[in-house]
């Protein structure tokens, strides 16, 4: 099945201001985030991408734009189900202030029980995101074959919840996972189980480029190596 490259959006103005942006409109990449996005095409050079999928929010679309400019043939699809968690009444508030909220302890230690006032639960966030990825995997497989690779730009909590699902971790453990702004997390899906290939990678991804497997009649392999499935 398809290999998924999850891109966390570059550093945003909310990140630097210590705000929980949520779905607040107008949150853009800051100067560093723009530089991170500008480096994305070189980091993915040599990896043929079947599609680019994005959260509808501005900071994700800005992160993918340099990649789309470098690859005008690459289609972009907006996917509502990988949108940021709806933090409801918490959106736009300072994280330092939210740390004093009793709910924050639940969010950190018992995420599956956390639901944001006026927003959604973390379980609902994970469910919609996993459903979106499963649907996109099937679509990419059908249209481009099981060796295809595609990129999906989303948000920290969404990506962490997808990693937890891939590893078979309960959502209550997902806060143990960390992904930096503009980091790349790679999951290779198979018929029986997914494999986490990269987590929060901020360096070179050349090893993920398809290569000829010796003695396999020229079969392409993505990101093989010791212990690869």
Provide a count of the helices.
7
What is the first-to-last residue Cα distance?
Answer: 12 Å
Helical residues, percent: 25-40%
**Percent of sequence in beta strands:** 15-25%
Structural class: alpha/beta
Gross geometry: globular
Unreliable runs: 213-229
In short:
By secondary structure, this protein is of the alpha/beta class. The chain is built from 7 helices and 8 strands, in the order βααβαβαααβαββββ.
How would you portray this structure in words?
Helices cover 34% and strands 17% of the residues. It is α/β, with parallel strands linked by helices. The strands form 2 sheets. Strands 3-2-4-1-5-6 form a 6-stranded mixed sheet, sandwiched between helices. The chain has a two-stranded antiparallel sheet with strand order 7-8. A hairpin with a 7-residue loop joins strand 7 (211-212) and strand 8. Helix 2 (31-43) runs parallel beside helix 3 (58-70) and helix 6 (122-144) crosses helix 7.
Sequence-ordered SSE layout with sheet pairings:
Elements lengths: L2 E6 L4 H5 L13 H13 L5 E6 L3 H13 L5 E3 L16 H4 L3 H8 L12 H23 L4 E6 L1 H12 L16 E6 L4 E8 L9 E2 L7 E2 L8
Parallel strand pairs: 1-4, 2-3, 2-4
Antiparallel strand pairs: 1-5, 5-6, 7-8
Helix pairs in contact: 2-3, 6-7
Features:
six-stranded mixed β-sheet, 7 helices, alpha/beta, 229 residues, 34% helix, disordered C terminus
């Amino acid at each position: 099945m398809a290999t998924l490259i999850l891109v966390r959006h570059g550093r945003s103005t909310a990140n630097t201001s210590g705000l929980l942006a949520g779905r607040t409109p107008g949150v853009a990449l800051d100067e560093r985030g723009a530089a991170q996005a500008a480096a994305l095409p070189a980091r993915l050079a040599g990896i043929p991408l079947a599609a680019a999928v994005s959260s509808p929010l501005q900071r994700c679309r800005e992160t993918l734009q340099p990649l789309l400019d470098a690859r005008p043939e690459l289609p972009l699809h907006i996917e509502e189900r990988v949108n940021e968690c709806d933090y409801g009444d918490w959106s736009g508030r300072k994280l330092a202030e939210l740390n004093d909220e009793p709910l924050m302890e639940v969010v950190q230690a018992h995420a599956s029980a956390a639901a944001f006032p006026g927003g959604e639960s973390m379980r609902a966030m994970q469910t919609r995101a996993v459903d979106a990825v499963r649907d996109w995997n099937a679509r990419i497989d059908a249209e481009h074959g099981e060796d295809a690779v595609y990129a999906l730009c989303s948000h920290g909590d969404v990506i962490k919840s997808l990693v937890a699902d891939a590893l078979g971790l309960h959502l209550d453990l997902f806060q143990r996972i960390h992904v930096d702004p503009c980091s790349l997390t790679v999951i290779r899906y198979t018929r029986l189980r997914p494999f986490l290939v990269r987590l929060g990678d901020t360096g070179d991804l050349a090893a993920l480029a398809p290569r000829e497997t010796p003695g396999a009649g020229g079969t392409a392999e993505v990101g093989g190596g010791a212990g690869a499935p």
